[in-house]
Specification:
Double Stranded RNA Binding Domain; alpha+beta; DNA polymerase, domain 1; hpI Integrase, Chain A; 3 domains; 17 helices; four-stranded antiparallel β-sheet; 412 residues
């Protein structure tokens, strides 16, 4: 039977000063190592064929009782066939890896926005993302690690504004969801996304459309569009001409204001809007009615600027310039609200649906709307240009009806 070392007391251990390893007893292999006056705990053990020395901390920072407890824990691992040094190293590596993965929601937002902003149309989009996240999310969860954000934390952000600022809250939820998805893909969190709507928050929050009615852009009623166009034609100025062209083409304000002469082929009666100027980032062909072509031919051209509707400094018109023009003409919708340029697209869509037999998808294509059905989009190769020309001509004729022919005077 091996000789058992005498178990030293804490006071006896404190008096040890001689260089070398001192067996303190109590736990097999526990020693106080003294080198150049520095004292530390060492556990000697044998693992397989290897003799090993495991440091347990310095003395007196780690007192005798704590050193013996650490030695006991190491012996438990040995009894289970585990090398305590390797086990400790694995814990350290896991802790370091966890620290490397640690990321606050605020920093995650910054990195996500930086990674995605090249996809966004303009700096305003980035500003909208930053403003909603900074105003509503970051004060609540900004300093939390993304791995610690769960459903309760997301609800703490959304609950205060879900019923009073529903549209903002809905957009905010989607942005939080995207940031957390990005964090998961980057290895900073695991599990399901607590900001997801379907199957998650839709069970806890009322549907946005149930508590906030969708506010459509004020649009000129179809029955009054000819009257509105006549008023526009009576007004001088580039803004009025741009609005008239927007009516005739059902385009977006930005597409009209940024239109350049090289995009047009008046002989072919076609306008090719490049992808970089489209909301969906896809090129869009617009068939031009005879009225649209006549309007374009009436516009002056400038050597120093290729804009079709230039502002005073040969720069694109501002969006407000078109809005101000509509306000001056006092165009009102059915509810008495002053109409806005974007509402002209709704007027066209209402005309196509209520006054014609053109298929809905043709009108949607004229508006450059994305096809919701992925299956239909996969099979849709063409853009119905020839058929859309007939539709846009009918629309132009409705907006700008030809004057009745003059009646010949009859001889008395």
């Amino acid at each position: 039977m091996p000789k058992r070392s005498r178990e030293l007391s804490a006071m006896e251990v404190g008096r040890l000063r001689e260089e070398g390893d001192h067996n303190v007893g109590g736990i097999p292999g526990l020693y106080l190592q003294i080198i150049d006056g520095s004292r530390s705990w060492i556990l000697r053990f044998k693992f397989g064929a290897r003799r090993r020395r495991m440091g347990l901390g310095s003395f007196p920072a780690v007192p005798l009782a704590q050193a013996r407890e650490r030695a006991r824990e190491a012996h438990k691992l040995l009894d289970e066939g585990v090398d305590p040094i390797e086990a400790r190293d694995a814990v350290k590596k896991a802790a370091l890896a966890s620290q490397a993965r640690a990321l606050t929601f605020k920093v995650a937002c910054e990195r996500f926005i930086a990674a995605k902003e090249s996809e966004w149309r303009n700096p305003k989009h980035r500003q909208q993302w930053e403003n909603t996240l900074e105003t509503y999310a970051e004060p609540v969860i900004g300093q939390l690690d993304v791995s610690a954000i769960g459903q309760d934390e997301v609800l703490r952000v959304l609950d205060p504004i879900w019923r009073t600022k529903t549209e903002t809250a809905s957009r905010l939820r989607g942005r939080i969801e995207q940031v957390l998805d990005w964090a998961k893909t980057r290895g900073h969190r695991q599990g399901e996304n607590p900001a997801a709507w379907r199957g998650h928050l839709d069970k806890l929050l009322p549907k946005p459309e149930k508590i906030a009615k969708v506010k459509h852009h004020p649009a000129v009623p179809v029955a009054k569009v000819a009257e509105a166009v006549a008023a526009l034609r009576a007004v001088e100025g580039v803004s009025a001409q741009a609005l008239l062209f927007q009516v005739l083409t059902a385009g977006r304000s930005g597409e009209i204001r940024g239109a350049r002469w090289p995009e047009f082929d008046l002989e072919a009666g076609q306008w090719d809007v490049p992808a970089e100027r489209m909301k969906g980032k896809r090129p869009h062909r617009v068939p031009l009615s005879t009225q649209a072509i006549e309007l374009l031919k009436s516009m002056p051209r400038y050597e120093q600027c290729d804009l079709v509707f230039p502002g005073r400094k040969m720069q694109p018109l501002s969006d407000m310039s078109l809005t101000a023009c509509m306000r001056r003409l006092n165009f009102l919708d059915a509810a008495g609200r002053v109409c806005v340029p974007h509402g002209l697209r709704s007027t066209f869509r209402d005309w196509a649906a209520e006054y014609t037999h053109y298929p809905p998808e043709m009108a949607e294509m004229a508006l450059a709307h994305a096809i919701e059905s992925k299956v239909e989009a996969a099979y849709r190769r063409g853009d119905m240009l020839a058929k859309r020309l007939a539709m846009m001509q009918d629309w132009a004729d409705y907006c700008m009806p030809a004057p009745p022919p003059k009646r010949k005077r009859q001889k008395a």
